[in-house]
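Lab manual, section 2.4: Encoding a predicted structure.

Procedure: take the sequence of the chain (80 residues), apply the prediction step described in section 2.3, and record the output as structure tokens. A sample record is shown.
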Amino acid sequence: MGERIRSKDWNKTPLGDVKYWPRAHTVMTKNEGTYDEALLIMERNGYPEETYYTFSYSHTPNRSLPSSSGSTTGGLAAPV
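Recorded output:
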């Protein structure tokens, strides 16, 4: 899956070039995890309420290759 993502010409899609996806680019090309923290306003109990989240981004290693290859199959984004 990672190879498919890297080989696709994203400029021909509404998402645009992957270099403008800072978190995805870091995870997929450098095999580094990263995170963002965000304040989101959610409508709960009938009124807007502040909610705080941490979004954690991790690479998914390619288990079919030796770990020394550093190959990434994909990425995982988990809100906490």
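Check your result against the sample. Helices lie at 2-7, 22-30.
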